[in-house]
Amino acid sequence: MGKTLRMPTISSILAGGSADPDVDIDDIDKRRRSKTEEILYAQITQKLQFYKDFIADSTRGFALPDGDVHFFDDFFDRAEKAAAKGKVVRILHYGDSQIEMDRMSDVLRAYMQETFGGEGVGLIPFSQTIPCTSVSQYASGDFTRYASYGDSTVLRNRGHYGPMAKCSRINSSATVTINATKVDSRDEHLKSFSKITVLFDNLSGNLAISLTANGVTDQQLNTELGVGSVSWQLDSAVSSARVTVSGVADVYGIMVDGKYGVSVDNISMRGASGHQIQMIDSALLSQSFAQMNVGLILFQYGGNSVPYLHGQASQEHYAKEMARQLRILHNTCPGAKIVFIGPADMCRYSDSLGLSTYRHLAEVVQTLRATALENHCAFWSMYDVMGGNGSMTSWVKSGLAGADYLHFTEKGAKKMAEYLVEAFETMYDFYTLKKQIPSETLEQSWKEKSKQQ
């Protein structure tokens, strides 16, 4: 049986075969790009849905003023650039006894410094009256403690307390020795520091401040009256240092940091309700913040006031007082973002109800949430995060809170701080995603998801 073998001609091979002359290569590329963009858009949409759900979930994420999903962008940008600029960006963590001894702040600090760099415990008072697990210090000499809360002597009619709402008045000369933690279980970033800054109000001029570290002493003189600071950048990290202040001055704190990165300053006030900000001279507070490069302020209050907020009038009054504190912080530290952290669940015993959550606690949380958002602050609810009404009983049974049904144990404070870190970590992941996609694509996808909810 015969077969016919057909071979292409040389001319047809050189001509590229019998390709359709009507095929538009630009159209093929366009359709391929369109398909790729569709896939990318679908992926982005799916990821954005997760972030939107997280932000909308009051038991996990932050409530954001005006739904501003870019609220933390400025802070994250500053934190990311801190290393390249050789700067330290500060997070001030104000709170009551729930955060004293560096509880909660230490977990947040470990995350921030691992993510953005940094070392050291941050801002500490010249004289510490409550032991801190992250640093030990001993002050001696001629000085007087002043504070706007607790049992300390009140510096009347002047409001010169500084950003920690307390200070040490150096009357002639005083010394403080600072030792980083040596506890193996503590975060490694806490075990050394390489930058020391003393923040003060020079009351008489001729102020001399010296630092001794690694066996070397260096002294700096300051003759300008008013708020100022002196810093030492060490060639290598140390775990111990001594600061001596000679003259007459109010020392507002000592910043124990690294060369760059993020520092988290624990500013605890036992028994305080948050009113202390208004007791500080605003001009002094503004001048102090200007020396500190503050990027974020956490304002954690409400627990000490809950037992006394029985009705709507008292709740509204407290909310107005908190709004006043937030406005002062905005005005004195305009470059910082502010997060109000609401109170945890709290229980008490009554003959009629037995052990139960304070009756108006949920209302207080909602009122504080509204107050924070109205004053351009984010809000994070410990009450909701830990489980809401009656959840404190479960935390006590699990060893996460004490028998007073008010305060976290060390284990419970750590867990609550881990929840807070989760919220920040998710917002930072969201921030990094936003930088990878065109802004118009982000806005379109986000709006579509908003319509679906």
Secondary-structure blueprint:
Elements: H1 10-14, H2 25-56, H3 73-85, E1 88-95, H4 105-116, E2 122-124, E3 135-147, E4 166-180, E5 193-202, E6 207-213, E7 216-222, E8 226-238, E9 240-246, E10 249-257, E11 261-268, H5 282-290, E12 294-300, H6 312-332, E13 337-342, E14 347-350, E15 354-357, H7 361-374, E16 378-381, H8 382-385, H9 391-397, H10 410-436, H11 439-452
Parallel strand pairs: 1-11, 1-12, 12-13, 13-16
Antiparallel strand pairs: 2-10, 3-4, 4-9, 4-10, 5-8, 5-10, 6-7, 6-9, 14-15
Helix pairs in contact: 2-11, 4-10, 6-7
Care to describe what's here?
- This protein is of the alpha+beta class and 453 residues long.
- It has 11 helices and 16 strands.
- The strands form 3 sheets. Strands 2, 3, 4, 5, 6, 7, 8, 9 and 10 form a 9-stranded antiparallel β-sheet that branches.
- α2 (25-56) packs across α11, α4 (105-116) packs parallel to α10 (410-436) and α6 (312-332) runs parallel beside α7.
- The protein is globular.
- 42% of the residues are buried.
Keywords:
9-stranded antiparallel β-sheet, 11 helices, 28% strand, 16 strands, alpha+beta, 453 residues
Roughly how many Å is the radius of gyration? Answer: 28 Å
Please summarize the sheet with the most strands.
9 strands, antiparallel
- β content, as a range? 25-35%
Query: Could you tell me the number of beta strands?
Result: 16
Low-confidence parts: none
Tell me the quaternary state.
single chain
**What's the SSE pattern?**
HHHEHEEEEEEEEEEHEHEEEHEHHHH
Give the count of helical stretches.
11
Shape, principal axes of CA atoms = globular
- Mean pLDDT across all amino acids: 89
In helices, the fraction of residues equals 25-40%
The computed structural class is: alpha+beta
